[in-house]
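User: Quick sanity check before I run a bigger batch. Here is a single chain. Can you write out its predicted 3D structure?
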Amino acid sequence: MTTTASSNIQTGQPAAQKVPLGATVNIPPRRLDFQFDEKTAKRYFYADDPFLSAFWITLSTLFPEGEDFFVQAVRHYRKDITDPTLKAQVAGFIGQEAMHSKEHEAWNELGQKFGYPTHRLDKSLGKLLGAVKKYTPKIFQLSATVSLEHYTAIIAEQLLRDESHRELADPETLKLWLWHALEENEHKTVAYDVYETVSGNYLLRAGTMIPVTVIFFAVIGVFQAQMLASDKQLFNIRNNWKGFKYLFGRKGLFAQLVPQYLDFFKPGFHPSQHDTEALLDEWREKLFGADGTLTAQYEQANQRKGKKTH
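Assistant: Done. Predicted structure follows.
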């Protein structure tokens, strides 16, 4: 990632505010305080489709516990990092991931109000990850984090690049996902670089991705079925098959990601090889520039935070 301090517009940091360490390496934590009202929010926010909307809620359900797992896995090795740039990147990573958990909890709460079992599924994932933390070595947990960060980075990059993808989403809900996608690509190298610093074992890295992939999609499948059942859509076979093909068919969203996914298994792979620097500059301006979509919301959230600290 870029290792020089960026402008306040690019990072989204108010000029008068103390700059967090992560912001000096273009990984600033951005508090946005998203609020969602079930009276005005759109239930089927993606393509007006029950299956596809449930899928993105399913993904969101993974984030609070998942992001916390990532933070703990990286933080465990923080003391072993001596490079000052990587130290700052780790600080930014932890700050951003903490905000992701917070903001997705707000959106998951909306899902709960719509009748989706987001709270229960969040607890189920917490138990699964708790077992991973209890019974596996710390280096495996870091390697699993590297694997999952690869997934989040390429899924996020796709959203930022593919206009037809974005056009299917409700504009208000899309703001949350664009912000998250931007930050996933801002810090996509951090867990990997920490892993390379403390281990660098290729066989462990590549080998971990295989069970992680199996478990990742198994959890998504189980959670998706429960989301659809709660919405009385589980046996809407025709629409569910259509949605499944949109995601996983030959030209589906996830099928398009296969080449980037497979790059991970190359011995010399590094996340920066998927060059998103220009893309990030574009979306920092669109979201947090002078006329950015989220600039006012970001400034208001920080004003509220400032008042609470005085």
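The radius of gyration is 19 Å.

User: Great, the batch can go ahead then.
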